[in-house]
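Q: I'm teaching a short session on how sequence maps to structure, and I want students to see two examples side by side rather than one. Could you give me a first protein with its sequence written out and its structure tokens following it? Keep the formatting plain so it prints cleanly on a handout.
A: Of course. Example one:
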Amino acid sequence: MINSVKNLIFFVIIITATVISIVYYPRPIKSAPPTSVKDTLSSSQLSYFARLGTGVSASDSLIRVALSGNPTNDTNNLFVGDTIGIGTTVTGLLTLYTVKDIGNTALFQINSPISQSNTFVNAAIISTHSAVHTFSFTPQSNFTGGYWEFLIKASNTAGEAINDGIPDSNGFDLGATTPSSGANGVGTRLKVTDVTCPSNWGIGATTAYNVGTTAVITSGVGTTATYHVISCYLGIGGTNQIGVGYTMTIGKDLASGSQLINPSPANTAEGSADVYTFYIRHRDSSSALFDGDTIQGKIALVEAVRVTATVDPTITFTIDATGVGTGSTACNSPAFGLNGANTTATQVAFGTLILDSANDLGHRLSAITNADNGYIVTVYEDGKMENITSGTTIPDTTCGGGGCTTSGVGTSWTSFTASGWGYTIQNLSVGTTIFSYGNYRPFGDGAANAQQIMKNIATPSATEQAYVCYRLTASSTQEAGNYENRLIYTATATF
């Protein structure tokens, strides 16, 4: 009987201890590393870290790169539009510039002359590239109230700070505290709010509770490496599911958050990726680490490939008789007479003029260019409308006494009893036309007096067109004979 009571008491003690152990010291359902593990980077481009070479003086905008002894020894992996920081005589500070052009592997141009404080040999030249890390993994164990840690390589190289915003050659930089020209580096420091933990834990928090601590991991005999540690906590009573895939992200869009800065090159062979190890590991609610749940993965970073091509500058300009034939009323002119059929790309044949009357003909002008700043079309007359036998001229029009000028906005021309020679314009599809159709001007005489008649200050999206309409009047006393003039059109692209 006594033995039976003892056995019962012992059994109760064992059951109670087991319950207490389960409640207060939970163990994983099983211990096994996650599967389907990967870290996907939004950009795997290495950061740029070169140094200033010799021969650069204050007020230069052409920067020479030192060609040896640095993580980057050329202009490869540098791109037009990149923001770069150049070291100053004040230790640790940078002045920011923008890359405007890249000449060759040793030279690039910046957007403004370099400051005197940046012109010392071996001044750091950096251009940071950063990335959002998206971890994917499928846990094979769980722990109530535990948490998962994500470890990303940090530098343990002497002289490289892991959180100054300057790219390191042996790991990812956490970023500086302020992204200004007066701060170290150009990236802001990664924060807890920049990390998004899995949203489908089942129970528990979805934001990181720890960012920025470091861990040292030994791999191999005497080999140690330093890692940034970002932790996702399951919360009190929370647990992940087994066999269910999760994702978490480290970093946000730079407009609203921060990202880890990618390393500068560690491998001197350009085009050969630098490979870094990352870890995912599991801790219980008391922070005890389960080595059996730890898994490592690899990520590779490499220089971006600069693809270059040249598009030759072009401009096309044509003069034709489309839309200005017999009966046309371009530019609000009276209907062109039978001589409208005689207009060609190289001739405007008025034929026999009707005296004391408007004689109208025209051309269609077309222009297109790929120039950034568009184009300008000008015209001038090379001499007067002149009798080829006697030299008598038909004067440039005064628009019936209206006082129109070669460079004015034009004037209405309704009186035709005086001889005159001029033109007007009708805009069909031009970005900007100099003056409106319906008003007339005389042609400028000689190249020095050429006038703009079509223009667009931006790159046209399609061929742009306008009518130019010529008007010639001869009074009843104008000397008889054959008259001739020459018009010079010039189309110029503005690059």
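Q: Perfect. Now a second example for contrast.
A: Example two:
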Amino acid sequence: MSNFITRNRRWKLTTAILSLSLLTVMAGAAVAPALNLIRDYFADANTGLVQMIISLPALFIALTSFLFRPLCKRFRARTLVLIGLILYTVGGCLAGAFSSIFLVLVFRAVVGIGVGIIMPLSTGLISFYFTKDKQAPLMGMSSAMNMMGGVVATLIAGALAMFSWRLAFLVYLMGLISIVLCLIWMPNESIYDPREQKKESRTFRRYAPFIISMFLLMFTFFIYPANFALETSRSGVFSQALIAPIMAMMDLLGFAGGLAFSKIQAVLRSLSRFTAPVLFLLAYIFLGVIGGPAGILIGSALVGFANGCGVPYLISTASMKAGRSAATTIMPWLSAALYAAQFTTPMILTAIRGITGMPDLSGYLAAIGSSILLLLCSVRAKG
């Protein structure tokens, strides 16, 4: 009977934690299918401001990640989760209520602050509550939930955008599900360990290969949602109506990659760290070089699968090194790297185009280069 109660509690806790993963990685890009419509509505605004609707949350997620440790000193886990979820849900929905691009961006920043609180907990709590033998499969599940959240969010936002770009922001009501689950099933424990304070200054140096790899991985991945709608519309290969389903297909393959992660790691062992870089390289060759309907579909699928198995490798391997303190040591760094990459992707691409003197350079070609850099960096990011 006691074993049944323990399993029942573990199942509820696992469900609550994994529900957070539905909301995190694609927080900024959830409304990407509506970006063309938003750009048309704010036709007088600078194009860079419109693109910041997608990228700005990432900046505030990265900034909030560095405040996560002090927040853990003051608040317990469930309280922090609920604060983050309320900011995510309210800020996300209200962004579509305004006709000023600047007010839209203010509430996109609120979304970023919310996710900056949620993200380290969505994976750090796995290291805190579960033993190492269960962490890798759960990290894979967490990544799968990230991508499944992207599938659901992209489809919902795409469908709502057919009626109005404003309605697309209602996709953030998904946060209500996690609010309920965490409120009733997540214990309100302190996850801060004062003994880890002395190690804080050494965190970056110790985990630098993982942090740098996470930045490169997410830069390589985020080139896709930041450019796909615009690149596809420009090429005319697929109509606007098919953009959201194709992006959802990419997320679905990411879900499959997360589920397959533990099996890939079991088969390839230390070589599993090269899976994502190689798949990204192939993906962007299909997207940027081969092109056409087949190239776009195959490339999109490979981008999703690469991200689905690449993120859990970095998080699980680094978290196992950090142990139970992962939520307050390495996870804020990985979260900051992840979202710093999302925010800076458009700026880095603009800089690359300026340096090369090729203003029409496809972001996909830049992604081929970053895939190679990620492959080289992955040599050091090992367990």
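Q: What should students look for in example two?
A: Point them to this: The domain at 2-377 is CATH 1.20.1250.20 (Growth Hormone; Chain: A;). Also worth mentioning: The two ends are 38 Å apart (CA to CA).
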